[in-house]
Design a protein that fits this description.
Number of strands: 7
Number of domains: 2
Order of helices and strands: HEEEEEHEE
Oligomer: single chain
Distance between the termini: 57 Å
Mean pLDDT: 88
CATH architecture of the largest domain: Sandwich
CATH superfamily of the largest domain: N-utilization substance G protein NusG, insert domain
Radius of gyration: 21 Å
Largest sheet: 4 strands, antiparallel
Number of helices: 2
């Protein structure tokens, strides 16, 4: 392969790698946790907002939300929120962990429950 083709190929590869890296940095989901701003979250069940909480001012607590005989225990701890226990069969909501990104809510499909950031 001629030297000129090698140089062009190397430049194309470098530009491609740089554009992928820039895309990851620019479009990375934002971490909403910041001590100087309010982090409002909504707890939505069956399409209705049943609770709105400012995590910045919330005290550590665990509370239960029930739905058609089922339940989810929601824990607020150190200005973070997560589902600590539930009686759903797959426990995907528990495995999701703490709410960190506005793009990835905590969802429990059997109980039609969503925990997400709000404005």
């Amino acid at each position: 392969m001629p030297t000129r083709v090698k140089i062009i190929l190397a430049v194309v590869i470098i530009v491609f790698i740089a554009s992928v890296a820039a895309s990851i940095i620019i479009f990375r989901p934002a971490d909403r946790k910041s001590s100087d701003e309010h982090n409002y979250i909504e707890i939505v069940q069956d399409g209705k907002v049943i609770n709105k909480i400012d995590l910045a001012g919330a005290e550590n607590q665990t509370f239960r939300i029930e739905y058609n005989g089922g339940w989810n225990d929601i824990t607020i701890e150190d200005e973070e929120i997560y589902i600590s226990d539930a009686d759903c069969p797959d426990h995907t909501c528990i495995k999701t962990g703490k709410l960190r990104s506005e793009y990835v809510p905590i969802v429990c499909l059997p109980h039609k429950l969503i925990i997400r950031f709000s404005e």
